[in-house]
Amino acid sequence: MLLLLFCLFPFVQILSTSLKHQADWGNPSLIPAQLNFEAYKELLGFSQQEVELPETIRMMLESPAISEEQRAAIIKKFTSTSDIFPFGRYMLNTFVISMVTAFLSTLIATFAAYALSRLKFRGRNAFSNTVMFVYMVGGVLLMVPLYQMAVSTGLASTVPGTLICLLLIYLVQTLPVAIYMLGNYFRTIPFSLEEAAMIDGYSRTSAIFAVIIPLSRPMLLTVMFYCFVIAWNEYLFASVFLKQYQDFHTLPLALQTLFSSKNAIWDRIMAASMLTLIPVVIAFSVANRFISSGGTAGGVKE
Amino acid sequence: MSDNIAAQEARLGHRLIAPAALIIALLILYPIFFNLYLSFFDVELNGDKSLVGLNNYKTLLSDGGFYSALWTTVIYLAGTVTGTTVLGLAVALLLNQNFPFKNTVRALVLLPYFAPVISVVFGWQFIFDPVNGIYNHVMVEVLGLVSERQNVIGDPDSALWVVIVFDIWKHFPIAFLLILAKLQSIPSDQYEACAIDGYNAWGRFIHVTLPECRFVIGTVVLLRMIWNLNRFEDVYLLAPNVETLPIYIYFQAFTGVIDQGLAAAISVVQLIVLSGLIWFYVKKVLNW
To answer: DSSP per residue over A30-52, as a string?
Structure first.
């Protein structure tokens, strides 16, 4: 019980604060005095409240001294929605890049893992040792050279270039764990199944698609989940590469910016945290039966 | 004929690993050497650089910030590695027993590990918030241990402990998973034999569980050291004032007075330490 309390308390705290009114924050009770969904509505864009023009501004606008143009500009300034946090957009950005990463990484890793677990070729040991090594070298050590490479190739100065860089970096961060997990799994599939397929006239390559991939579907899903979560949670490289392109911020970056830019908005931050958490929890509960069965115990990487 | 098949197999193998090998070579192996190269230059954000020889390394050795980052990293590693391993082992022993909702409990225990850092850090920051946080409420008003509310995360010294506890919370599940997998493979007749020899539960733990788990515990300790040496996000997002080496590198490279060459030099030093640990891991643990 104590253990669960330790594990889950921060989550409960996030949920509770996200539902509290500002006046209620200092109250240590986890049950909000009054439920408040404003923060969620605001983040998801449901509350389109009309922006009231202040009285003085309205009087100013009525004065004949200002031109039509100035008047429009003033109205625009006061009704601007630029300070609304475009949560949906950030979520979509993050979702797209994480999905693409998860899919490509799993695909590339399937090929590599198959080669490592089944085929004999020169350089196999070297490759598998390199994967092992790469698996443990953190991205933080390579942020300077990677950034300099992106600058010198000119990729960092355009939006598509930046996104490609980021995608490649996410790929390389997820590939080793994917190769490792899939390789271990492929070794448990009896080779005789493939042989049978090849006797039936499949080529070696098409036997991969006909036998290995269907048999590994649960594992492939688990690996995709891992890669998705790694990309979804990534902050460091997103912050280095995307800082200047606000429209393309991912959730971790956007939340950090939100947190450091405004004060006294705990409910919004917590609601945003909750919404960032939910896709992972959903993915987790889907993949969980494979994970907690210990089948992936060797495949640890964060 | 068989030569032919072997050659075909090798060709297919090469084709299949090509995409992965290419990406790894381009984005990991090349940058490692490029990083070494950059560490001998004074590098600007826009890519301009001028050769300064070993100056970056000299600056590093005379830089108090570097030593304090090193020391912080050592405390951080010692605290988190011990904490995650001990807690992971304890929880694995606990959850290896049979009780209702076992699978649900196991899944819930894993949740901190998978949850996005960015969302959980805010929960933790709120807990330790000087005005609203429950930590201060309990310490000051309920238990009366501390006389006034403190900004625990604002002060680097106490923030280090928060960061360590946070890391243990977030990462003990993986230690738990690895150790649990091992526990489940220990044949129960060993325990029975031990029980027949007259040992109580503690004796069985000492004489069966620990020796059986020695290797997996070694793995956990080394892997946690390796990965925590690289850990950036958990620390930076929760308390950027706790300067472990990765955060020190980040500050040098991208904020304030930007000195990417120096950052590269620190990375080189850290990479050497890391390679040492990895070498040890591969040689010792994987061969056990």
So the answer is: SS-SS---HHHHHHHT---PPPP
Place of tokens 């290995």: A212
Rounded CA separation B130/B152 (Å): 7
CATH for A229: 1.10.3720.10
How far is A33 from chain B, CA to nearest CA, in Å? 15
Q: Please indicate, yes or no, if residue B33 is contained in any of the structural domains.
A: no
pLDDT confidence band for A109 (50 / 70 / 90): very high
What is the number of structural domains in chain B? 1
**B13 at A interface, C-beta within 8 A:** yes
Verify whether the Cβ–Cβ distance A130 to B24 is below 8 Å: yes
Distance, in Å, from the CA atom of B118 to the CA atom of B238, rounded to the nearest integer, reads 9
Strongest mean pLDDT among A26-30, A82-86, B76-80, B99-103: B76-80
Tens of pLDDT, residues B6-53:
888 888 888 888 888 888 888 888 888 888 888 888 877 777 777 787
Question: Using CA atoms, how far apart are residues A257 and A18, in angstroms rounded to an integer?
Answer: 18
- Return the CATH number at B209: 1.10.3720.10
Alpha-carbon distance values, A223 to A61, A160, A180, A230, B181 (Å): 60, 27, 10, 11, 19
- Please check whether residue A288 touches B, CB under 8 A: yes
Whether B264 sits inside 8 A of A141 (CB atoms) is no
Domain that holds residue A257: 87-295
Give the model's pLDDT for residue A292.
46
Q: What's the pLDDT at A300?
A: 41
Q: In terms of domains, do A196 and A76 share one?
A: no
